[in-house]
Design goal:
With 22 residues, the protein is an all-alpha fold. It has helices at residues 2-9, 14-21. It is flat and about 20 Å long. Residues 1-22 are annotated as: Disordered.
Amino acid sequence: MRQVGSFQDLPMGTGKSNLIQS
């Protein structure tokens, strides 16, 4: 479910990096 939260941050540009770190 955390991936969904990361997708929401994706538009910011940092979500993608956070998703990889997660």
